[in-house]
Amino acid sequence: MGGAMKPEPAVSDPLPRPHGELSTASISHISQLAVDVWEDAATVTRYQRGQATREILQYLSTHPGQTWQERWDASPLGQGLIKASELGARRTTGVAVTPGVRTLFCLRVVQPSMFTFRRNQLNNFTPLFVTAQNDPLLTRFEEHVAAQGLRHKHEREAVLDMCTLLTYQGVALADVTPASILQYAHDNRAARCRLQPGQPQANRLYGHGMWTALIDMGQFPPSTPTTMRAAMMRGQRTIEELVGQYGVRDQAVRRLLVDYISRRRADLDYSSLKQLALLLVKHFWVGIEELNPDQQGLQIDPDLYTRWRETIRLKEDGTHRRGQDDIVISVRSFYYDLHTWAADEPERWAPWVAPCPVPPGEFHGLGRRRRKENERTADRTRQRQPLLPILVEHVETRYDQARLLLERADKTADGGEFTHAGTTYRRVISESDQKLLRHGDPVPTRIVNLDSGRLMHIGTEEEAAFWDWAAVETLRHSGVRIEELCELTHLSIRQYQRSNGEVIALLVIAPSKTDRERVIPMSAELFHVIASIIRRHGRRGKPIPLVSRHDPHDKVWSAPMPFLFQRQNGAIGSKIFNPGTIQKMISRRCEDLAEIHPGFRGLKFTPHDFRRIFATELVNSGLPIHIGAALLGHINIQTTRGYVAVFDEDVIRHYQAHLHQRRQQRPNDEYRHASEQEWSDFEEHFDRRKVELGSCGRPYGTPCQHEHACIRCPMLHVNPKMLGRLNELEADLVDRRAQAKAEGWIGEIEGIDLTLTFLRAKRDEAQRRARRPAVDLGIPKPRTTPPTQEIS
Fold first, then answer.
1. Model pLDDT for residues 355-371, shown as the tens digit of each residue
2. Domains of the chain, residue spans
């Protein structure tokens, strides 16, 4: 429980004065300090710094005030109206006054605002400030930042953030608190947004690096969140806060609503509890009070109920509200629960018992409305199902092109040119990149398209293309919910080893919506995607980072775990993909396709669309629907029926008839554990599915229903190694078609054409799979002891 940490500036008592009290010191004394404090600098530089300090102090002396701080605050420079560079430069006065401003900050003569500090470009500020403070704690802070293993750029950024905080808040490092870092992050963002309006980079929150370093130093209490992001996240609200945020006028009713929701809390998770408060408090009772401010108690007149019922038909933006039935159901449950509880605890609930205002005929047509909603969802799935292969091909092609282009670019020296896919590129390494390379930092690979002149950050583009491909492929091959996708970890991958040594890969789905863990077998395609993600994380020889994930629904943080869908994000470290990010990734790919494919215009793919298409393809390919329900994690088989977009009634009817027939034929004593021989027969089924061109995907215990016409069979999975054999079969079919055409065998031609269509489609699918680079995870050798099933 609890809200986000409140930002507050740090307070120092006494104020840090490393060179004594200088608020009323003379110009000559401060100018001499500007020369003497930094003794390692060249004589000319020290003299110029002293002269610049004298110039800026003379400027401030022309403004009212008894101290230098008062004069600074009264000046246009201190108010941020002008830059220090506008007062004078070597081209005009022979003296640049900006180093003088920097000196006043380092010596603690004046304390600037964040906006004033950011407006002036203070080169080399960090080392000069650290030297001037002579603070051992600040030196130790630099050492801890260096030990974090950040890139050199982010190390410098973290130390600069700390020096900036100490300067504008006027404190020493020992006075810095977690709340003061949050204050710095917000003030810094506000100043940057004023100076760089419209720039996305300006809206960043800085300070993550120094937060982590101070945690490592033990500078903060043990209860402090380990990351700045965690400190800014609001935790779970109390029930009093959930009810109180909507402003109920009648305090007696407010207490009743708090007691009612508290009673329901044992049966609901936090997300459902928050939804109940929204429906019952905001949409119902607050709406009643707006229509009738004098309402007393829960007894509501039919006329008032009718007027309230009209208000919930539309949302605040004027659009139709689809969830109005949910509001009415929660209201009816509220009144009926009070009736039931009053019988057991009359002293607590009986005074609030009132007739339920929802009339008996209110839900007339509810079934029809829900059928309409199911039909709308099914139609949505039918629209997207034929477009899914186009989206898959797009993300695969984009990733393949970016990956191959990056490989060519990495092998090319600076300034070298190379040609890829008919386009000529030049490798570019900028001066800033050279500086990063000298510090041992990796730099993004940049190339210039010589045909268009476009500068490409191909390393960044390849990273984005990979995660687009990984998200789409994982969603469509597993059917997991988006929350479950984000929660996949390295620990989710298990294996089952058969007696013949064959390893079957399993994917463990953590409990989410139904609080039930489930295990799904991974297809070759899904295993390849998961293996590719693991290989990408381990390409630098390090294990997958342990990161905590924030659950946006339950408002809690997980334990640090090796999540698969995470990537590096500057000084923040590894950051886990959230559902909104994955939705944006898919939407961007659909927008790209809309420019070349009319079917994607105005169409939006969501992660749940992949789940519905997955369920539809499972059931309509012959898989029993109860098995599909288990794979999808549905407790009720009717939920799975709602996911099946086409032929669902036909599948259910045949399946129910099959179950009835089996129950009539098999006695009860046959429902027992499988014997060793039966289990061996089951394992051998997978060996019997191996055919010349690959493997057959027919269900267990079923014979071939297509008379071994494998080319036409949808169950055939072609091995990419057999592409040459497919070409031979195609050539033979073409020759046979030419002979049939010469002889006038019309029926033979139609059959050959149909076979050619299936053959070419399977060849395209096999070629697509062959383009995926092989991933070797180093699977362990078969065990010497009998294998056991790791997951039940």
1. 999 988 887 877 787 77
2. 27-231, 239-364, 607-670, 697-792
